[in-house]
Design goal:
The chain is of the alpha/beta class. Helices cover 35% and strands 19% of the residues. Helix 3 links the parallel strand 4 and strand 5. The radius of gyration is 21 Å and the shape is globular. The N and C termini lie far apart (51 Å).
């Protein structure tokens, strides 16, 4: 196939580019050239999707079998891209998010492939009322549908991990384990280690999306592991194993975490309290995607490969620049408080 990737140099876009090249597809990327480096083998077109002249220059004399949009967050902007590309591509794959479903983002009930999306107009700008991430993603889907009616593929991704992750949630745990020596060997681990999770590798999303394009599939798919594929305890154990760490997780209870103002998801990346409502984040299956051929590699492979990408980089300070993780000093204070309260290492 001839594939245009809007983005293509970071995380999800990079994974699509890598998997497409490996499959023998001809790949064009369209980006500003400031956030990352394009992979060897792609035709890199420089431009800003918010500039009409850049979009016109992109499409002039070119046509693709499919567009893969990995970096669309504002409906009005995505709509302009779709309008410019509508006569130059057959199918538009938009990487959306499970957060576009209000029952998921508001933790109301488990969602499925037929759950309604947020009510957001296709021409909404970044200042749209109630325009949080998930709401705007729903508007972006509608923006694509306007110019590619019947020719759209929306991948509503769950929690994505893998090599080159710009969110750096997994990186935060990997580096914490790598730094586990001496007085920092004990690592604060949150809540119940048996809480099940659904984590998907970015490369599995790319493979699935490209296969769907090759098969002519359209529609909306939740892209998540069909079953819970790890627990929080297993995830941290894989981080210890990948880094060769001597870390000793100390499992502290949720009341202690709340009492000390530790934030789920940011201070403790990917962790949510073990309540019926909070764990709805891990409840969504993906029967439609599974029937269409989605396969998910083991989480151990994802953790190992993510560490291989960052292991030779300079050791960072925690929390990471993306705001993920506790500082070592803060964690030490919390563990001392836990010990004083009579807690014990798990």
């Amino acid at each position: 196939m001839r594939v245009l990737i809007i983005g293509g140099s970071q995380f999800v876009g990079r994974a699509f580019a890598a998997e497409a090249l490996a499959a023998g597809h001809r790949v064009t990327t369209f980006n500003r050239g400031v956030s990352g480096t394009d992979l060897p083998g792609v035709e890199a077109v420089r431009g800003d999707r918010e500039e009409a002249g850049d979009l016109e220059r992109l499409v002039t004399g070119r046509r693709w079998d499919a567009v893969v949009d990995t970096c669309g967050y504002v409906p009005r902007t995505v709509g302009a891209s779709a309008a410019a590309l509508s006569g130059h591509a057959d199918t538009y794959l938009y990487v959306s998010s499970i957060a576009c479903l209000p029952d998921w983002s508001q933790a109301v009930r488990p969602v499925d492939d037929d759950s309604p999306a947020h009510d957001c107009p296709p021409d909404a700008g970044p200042d749209h009322a109630d325009g949080d991430y998930g709401t705007l993603k729903a508007g972006c889907e509608r923006a694509v549908d306007l110019d590619f009616a019947g020719r759209t593929l929306h991948l509503r991704a769950g929690v994505i991990l893998g090599p080159h992750d710009t969110m750096r949630m997994l990186d935060a745990w990997l580096w914490r384990m790598r730094l586990a020596e001496g007085e920092h060997r004990r690592v604060l681990a949150p809540g119940n280690p048996e809480v099940g999770m659904r984590l998907i590798d970015v490369r599995d999303i790319a493979d699935f999306g490209l296969d769907c394009l090759a098969e002519g599939r359209t529609g909306a798919y939740i892209v998540n592991p069909p079953e819970k594929n790890t627990t929080f305890g297993q995830l941290l154990a894989e981080c210890v194993k990948a880094t060769g760490s001597a870390a000793e997780p100390v499992w502290v209870d949720e009341a202690f975490i709340a009492e000390h103002g530790v934030s789920p998801w940011t201070d403790l990346p990917m962790w949510v309290p073990d309540t019926a409502r909070d764990t709805l984040v891990w409840a969504a299956g993906a029967p439609r995607a599974r029937a269409a051929g989605l396969t998910c590699r083991p989480v151990s492979d994802t953790v190992r490969d993510a560490w291989e990408v960052v292991r030779d980089r300079p050791v960072p300070e925690l929390p990471l620049a993306a705001g993920c993780g506790l500082s070592l000093a803060r964690e030490k204070e919390l563990l001392a408080a836990w010990d004083a309260r009579g807690g014990a290492a798990g």
